[in-house]
Design brief:
Elements: E1 5-6, H1 8-15, H2 19-28, E2 34-36, E3 39-43, H3 44-59
Antiparallel strand pairs: 1-3, 2-3
Length: 67
């Protein structure tokens, strides 16, 4: 199976956030990225891992974003 590498714009479109937010997630280590010179890419596998962990954290009791 081929693991596609996504750029920040593609990651932003998948997550429904801005490209700047993707760079923040990369800088803080929330999403793992691979740097190629000045470019950074995120593997589909690492993005999937981030989404799974985020869902698990959101489903925990007491993790409401309301109020």
């Amino acid at each position: 199976m081929q693991n596609k590498l996504l750029n920040a714009v593609e990651v932003a479109q998948i997550l429904g956030v801005s490209r700047s937010q993707v760079y923040i997630l990369l800088r803080t280590g929330a999403i793992e990225g691979v740097r190629f010179g000045k470019s950074i890419r995120v593997s589909e596998e690492d993005l999937g891992k981030f989404i799974r962990v985020s869902k698990q954290n959101a489903e925990r009791p007491g993790n409401s974003n309301i109020g």
